[in-house]
Prior knowledge:
The protein is α+β, with helices and mostly antiparallel strands and 152 residues long. The protein has a single domain (7-126), classed as Roll (Bacterial Protein-export protein SecB). It has helices spanning 88-117, 130-151; strands at residues 7-21, 36-49, 52-65, 68-84. It has a 4-stranded antiparallel β-sheet with strand order 1-4-3-2. α1 (88-117) crosses α2 (130-151). The N and C termini lie far apart (43 Å). The model has no long low-confidence stretch (mean pLDDT 93).
Amino acid sequence: MADEQQKFALQRIYVKDISLESPNSPMVFTKSWKPNFKVDLNTRSNHVAENSHEVVLTITLTAELDGEQVLLLEVQQAGLFAIEGIEGDTLKQVLGIACPNLLFPYAREAIDSLALKGGFPAVALQPVNFEALFREAQKQAAEKQSQSAQKH
C-alpha cells in the first residue's frame, strides 16, 4: 500500500461572529484615550466532513478607562481547511498552530476595523506565537490529567 499523500489547503475564510460594545459612549469620547487593554485568545476546531475541518479563532479585546469598561470587541474568525493524510498529534498541531496562524491576520484586521467603525483609535494587536500557546495548553492538560489520575 502506497503512503497516503499529505494535503493541507485553506478552502474558505469567513467571519463567524463579530461584535462591538461601547457601554460608555458618547462620554468615553470626551476623555483622554489611555485605556488598559486585555486580550483573550481561544481556538477550537470541528470535524465538518471527510478531510474537512473548521477552525475558529476567537479574539476578545476589552478596554478599561478609569476602572470602567469602555470597549468590548469580539471576533470569531473562521476557516474551512481541507486536510488529508495527517492524523493524530500532527493533526492536532496543524489545527492548533498552522490554522490559527493563517486566520490571525484576518482577525487582527477585523478587530482594527471594528474599533475604527466604533469611533475609537486603531488597535494594532501584536503577533501571537500560536505554537507556544499550543504547547502550554498541552502541558496544562497533561498536568491536569496527571493530578486527576493521582486522586483516583
